[in-house]
Structures are given as C-alpha cells and as structure tokens.
Fold NnrU domain-containing protein.
Amino acid sequence: MASSLLLSLPFLSPHPRNPKPPIPISKPLISLSSPSIPRKFSIPIHVTPNPLQFRHRSRRLLVGNSIGESDEDSDDILVGEDAAVFELSDQKLTSWVYFTVILGVVLFALNYLWIDNSTGFGKYLIDALESVFQSPEVVLLSLIVIFASVHSGLASFRNVGEKIIGERAFRVLFAGVSLPLAVSTVVYFINHRYDGIQLWQLQSVPGVHQLVWLSSFISFLFLYPSTFNLLEVAAVDKPKLHLWETGIMRITRHPQMVGQAIWCLAHTVWIGNSVAVAASIGLIGHHLFGVWNGDRRLSLRYGDAFEIVKKQTSVIPFAAIIDGRQRLPKDYYKEFIRLPYIAVTVVTLGAYFAHPLMQSASFRLHW
C-alpha cells in the first residue's frame, strides 16, 4: 500500500540571542551552514518521530493501465505494518513452549469452569436466558448482544486498561471474559440452528452446497487477520494494537466484518430459518459497530499514520483498488504465501471436516 513518507522540517536553529531555544526532538541530520553563510541561517533537518516504527519497502512496481497497478519508478513505502510476516530465525523455542503451556491451561480452565455441565457455570447463563425468553431466536440474539457488549466494551477501554494493569494482564482479562461468552454463543447456535420458523429450503438445489462451502472458506481468510501473531494472542509477546497494511488489508480495511458477513449470508442461505436470520442480524450488526469503533481506536493510537492508511484503503472490498486509491504491487500474491495465511487455510479445512465432531460435542452439553 503506497503512502507518503512523513518527513518534516519544523525547526530552524535559533539566533544566538534568541532566549527561547527550540524543543529538541531528535539530533539534526543535515546542517546547511557554511563559513560563508551567517549562523542564523543554519538549517538543521529533524525527522519528526512517528508513533509507528515505519517499515519501509522500496520496490519496482508493475507498469500498465490495469486497475490498482502503480506507475513505473513508484515506491511502495509502508506507513503501517507488513501483515503475516513470519521469520523462523526470529522465533524462540521457549516462547512457543510457553504458548503451548498457556493454551493447555486456558483450555482446561475453560472446560472445567464454563463448559462442563457438572462443574462449569456456562449452563446457568443459558438457563437464565431461556427462562426469560421462550424463543431460540431471542435467546441467541441475547447471547450475541452480551458477547458484543463485553467484547467491544473492553476493546474500547484497552488504552486505559493497559496503562493501569499492563498489556499482558489486560489481554488475559479480555480473553478470560470474552472467550466463555463466545463459546456459549457458538454452542447455542449449533444446537438450535434448525429450530424456529423455516423460511426457505435450498439445500437440495444443485450447486448451493458448493457455493456455501466456498463462501465459508473465503470468509475465514477475511475473519482471522488478528491471529497473525499467536504469541501476542496468548500474551507471550506483549500485545499490540496493530496497523496492518498489506495482504487482505489492501482489499478491505475491516476484513473481519467482511468475513463475518460472508459467513452469515452463506449459512443463512443454507439453513434458511428464523434462527439463522437472527444470528446473522446480531453478528453483522456487531461487526458493523466494530468498523466504527476500530477506526476510532486506530485513529487515537496512530493519528496521522492511520489517516494515511485510511485514505488508501476501503471498508467495502476492492473499492479503494477500483477507484485508484490502492495500488497493488506487482508481486501482490506473495503477501498471501506466508505461514499465517497457510495456517488459517489448514485450520479452515480442518474445521470443515471436523463439523460432525463439533456438532456432537455441542449436543452433549444440552444448551
């Protein structure tokens, strides 16, 4: 994603008699003073610090008139971060050992304290909602609203929370509250997906199954850009609010919203009842709010750097590419041939074949 390099020359060297010196922000890089030039005209050049540690990449881009292609001799200079980069040489074995241990502890605690009906509290939430609301559509919408309120609410207070308890502790709090609510919502949807009023029946129509499968597969490539660094997800590495700029971000600045919309529409077409419609309304509504909230949080965190990325990307897929604001590099496909994208692809295929296991496990909970 091409963008301008933020370079400024904000300060002139003061005259020796000037009692108010400039605020030093960095060492001067260049001085234009010389014996023949009076000292008062000496102009040191300073680089204004940016909240992002810029990753600069210059490369020759494809020449042509195709949509989204850049002109010859253009430079692709990243203002944000190159997404899904995974260098094996940068990995530490101890970090992945910690990740494995943390993952095991989290899954054990989640099962014991929330999922298992004999020891967990998850069933009490479902029972409470079902005692108030008699329809599965309203119960499912209630679960989505509860999850969305907690998830987006904690995300909105991330900057404040991290200052108070630290990045890692806040990530643990965020995951510890959000994950059980997400599990309850998913399990309830699986168990009640065929309840409610049947609105249409397209499962026997030729090609519908293939269309739904392909749409679901594509949705997962959009849904999980946040897993680019699993060590941050598990708080092994210090979690950061990233300003991703490459890969799927060139297509849409909010891939999770797009992926969720694709997934919801595909499953609503396949199931065709009121429960699926309720799930789609709740989930898409939550992610549309996330578009506004996510942009707000990135703007507060990165300021002008985010505004540059925002101008060169779009919420609607491919819109920035079509209108010329986003110029795809010649070797754009290489931004997807990276381990995190490959891992998402493998997990997506595995999840598809594991559908019977997921359905069986959910049914045993009787939620």
